[in-house]
């Protein structure tokens, strides 16, 4: 009997202690960019990414801890062709290239359909939500069965627009957890005015501080998490585009930040007492934050917090129901991508197109020069893995040249502006560690390859024996040295025009023309009309000395 009483007492103590401690889990994604199927639409091959595979990881995490919240940090409805096809249909009332709708039609925005199925609790507004205009944004937002958050996006008086909630508060296992949404404020620099009409974007730090103050005065949550669509630290020339670190350091009261936008990944980092985490883009990993709480008085106190990333792998099973829901969109995208539009007389690939001039990149430059009526064109190779076989060229292959839904701009500049832009691009490389450049490293891993722009319409070389800022040599236009004061009409995309990637020299340039279509659509239209891609590069730019080229090829990771 004494033993039985002792066991009962121990059980009561355990139950009482258990009631005083609880763990709440925040599951997070960011920068999904329309990835549902575990599939690369530009190579037509399986890929370890996307919501269908993440669904399996989410279900497993929920089984481990049912006391969970699922959020997304933005850039959700733009990216893969399944979103592009649907958004063109919403905007234009028809599919491109005369394709017919699926027999079952389109029920909703595909990403919202998928996220509703997974039971998301909230999503932060990202900058790419604006790419197809407010009609598309509003349709997707209406399809969501969860709120879109943005504490620093306000509706202008009289605009008639539905405001974005600054935060939500959800009670999980008796714990009140608040999610604050923060959007990168540079959208007016990247988008056409009609794409954000009726909205204004406030300083993120101020908006976050105001939201925290409101929460502490009202709902008084036990945990405050900010879902920030912005990178960790701002780089030179980026302005306020990336400020998650600033919010962590300067806004008291926030316990953790899930951030995105920069397509990096951070399993866990601390700035003061704030825990920060960034899941990998495209649904390549699921972010998990665990908050251990203890009951104190009438509320809860965080006793510990941790974070980790759970990667999608080849062994991760895709959720069959999610694949079924997205299948009409997937099949429509495949029909579009498989449509032949031109021919190529030679086989081409982008393996070394960031090291030597390439006909693939020249193909994009020709389109930009043509539609912008420009003297000079600047663009980057966004996809070094692109391959084009000799023969028929499909929309898939052309679309792989330009992965993003950017618009084409023409800005009024001069020789000095172009030279500064090329010097900024040359930061993609390191200065040779020895004079012959026969050894590396020569690739600057701190600069993303998609920020290495090359120019068409001029000739030049990048001398890696020289220090940063003095590498662009023999810059010539129409066969003569290009003077700093030479007026130039320059073709760039809308992100470059806003100064992104360190291209601050374009931020205040006069925009003299904007395209009404995305650059990818312009490329398809241009080569549909002309019928063939360039046969060879014109080699208007080069890296010096020649030994540096061979060293860089060895460093290139593309197989």
Topology, please?
Blueprint: H1 2-20, E1 21-29, E2 39-40, E3 45-46, H2 51-64, E4 68-72, H3 81-92, H4 110-118, E5 122-124, H5 134-143, E6 148-149, E7 153-155, E8 167-172, E9 175-183, H6 187-190, E10 199-201, H7 204-217, E11 223-229, H8 244-250, E12 256-259, E13 266-271, E14 274-278, E15 285-296, E16 299-311, H9 320-337, E17 340-344, E18 348-349, H10 359-372, E19 376-380, E20 387-388, E21 391-394, H11 395-399, E22 407-414, H12 415-425, E23 453-456, E24 459-463, E25 472-477, E26 480-481, E27 487-493, H13 494-497, E28 510-518, H14 519-530, E29 541-544, H15 546-555
Parallel strand pairs: 1-4, 4-5, 5-6, 9-11, 11-12, 12-14, 19-27, 24-29
Antiparallel strand pairs: 1-15, 2-3, 7-10, 8-9, 13-14, 15-16, 17-21, 18-20, 19-23, 22-27, 22-28, 24-25, 25-26
- Give the strand order, joined by hyphens, for the main sheet: 6-5-4-1-15-16
How many domain regions? 2
Q: Can you count the beta strands?
A: 29
Instruction: Estimate the strand proportion.
Output: 25-35%
Distance between the termini: 73 Å
- Counting helices, strands and paired strands, the structural category is alpha/beta
Overall geometric form? globular
Count of runs of 4 or more consecutive helical residues? 15
**Given this structure, which CATH class of the largest domain is correct?**
Alpha Beta
Gyration radius, to the nearest Å? Answer: 26 Å
| CATH level-3 fold name of the largest domain | Purple Acid Phosphatase, chain A, domain 2
Give helix % range.
25-40%
CATH superfamily of the largest domain: Metallo-dependent phosphatases
């Amino acid at each position: 009997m004494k033993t039985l009483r002792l066991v009962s007492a121990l059980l009561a103590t355990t139950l009482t202690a258990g009631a005083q401690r609880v763990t709440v889990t925040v599951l997070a994604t960011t920068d999904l960019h329309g990835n549902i199927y575990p599939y690369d639409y530009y190579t037509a091959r399986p890929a370890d990414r996307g919501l269908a595979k993440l669904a399996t990881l989410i279900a497993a995490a929920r089984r481990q801890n049912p006391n969970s919240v699922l959020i997304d940090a933005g850039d959700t409805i733009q990216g893969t062709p399944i979103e592009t096809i649907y958004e063109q249909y919403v905007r234009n009332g028809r599919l491109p290239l005369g394709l017919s709708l699926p027999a079952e039609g389109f029920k909703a925005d595909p990403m919202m359909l998928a996220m509703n199925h997974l039971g998301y609790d909230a999503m932060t507004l990202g900058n790419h939500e604006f790419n197809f205009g407010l009609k598309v944004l509003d349709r997707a937002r209406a399809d969501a069965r969860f709120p879109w958050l943005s504490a620093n996006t306000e509706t202008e008086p009289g605009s008639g627009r539905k405001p974005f909630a600054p935060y939500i508060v959800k009670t999980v296992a008796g714990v009140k957890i608040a999610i604050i949404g923060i959007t990168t404020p540079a959208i007016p620099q990247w988008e056409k005015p009609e794409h954000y009409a009726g909205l204004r974007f406030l300083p993120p730090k101020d908006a976050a501080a105001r939201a925290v103050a409101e929460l502490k005065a009202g709902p008084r949550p036990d945990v405050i998490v900010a879902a920030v669509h912005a990178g960790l630290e701002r780089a030179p020339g980026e302005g306020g585009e990336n400020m998650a670190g600033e919010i962590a350091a300067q806004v008291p009261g926030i316990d953790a930040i899930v951030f995105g936008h920069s397509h990096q990944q951070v399993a866990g980092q601390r700035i003061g007492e704030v825990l920060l985490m960034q899941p990998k883009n495209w649904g390549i990993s699921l972010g998990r934050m665990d908050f251990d709480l203890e009951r104190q008085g009438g509320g809860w106190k965080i006793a510990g917090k941790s974070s980790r990333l759970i990667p999608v792998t080849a062994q991760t099973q895709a959720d069959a129901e999610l694949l079924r829901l997205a299948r009409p969109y997937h099949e429509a995208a495949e029909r579009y991508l498989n449509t032949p539009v031109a021919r190529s007389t030679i086989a081409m690939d982008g393996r070394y197109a960031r090291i030597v001039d390439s006909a693939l990149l020249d193909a994009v430059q020709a389109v930009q020069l043509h539609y912008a009526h420009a003297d000079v064109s600047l663009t980057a190779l966004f996809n070094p893995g692109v391959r084009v076989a000799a023969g028929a060229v499909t929309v898939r292959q052309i679309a792989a040249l330009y992965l993003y839904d950017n618009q084409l701009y023409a800005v009024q500049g001069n020789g000095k502006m172009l030279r500064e832009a090329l010097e900024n691009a040359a930061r993609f490389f390191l200065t040779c560690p020895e004079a012959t450049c026969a050894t590396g490293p020569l690739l600057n891993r701190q600069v993303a390859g998609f920020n290495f722009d090359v120019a068409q319409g001029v000739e030049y070389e990048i001398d890696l024996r020289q220090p940063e800022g003095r590498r662009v040599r023999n810059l010539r236009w129409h066969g003569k040295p290009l003077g700093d004061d030479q007026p130039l009409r320059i073709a760039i995309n809308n992100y470059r025009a806003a100064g992104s990637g360190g291209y601050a020299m374009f931020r205040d340039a006069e925009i003299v023309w904007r395209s009404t279509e995305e650059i990818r659509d312009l490329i398809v239209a241009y080569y549909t009309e002309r019928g063939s891609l360039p046969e060879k590069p014109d080699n208007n730019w080069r890296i010096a000395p020649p030994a540096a080229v061979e060293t860089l090829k060895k460093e290139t990771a593309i197989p």
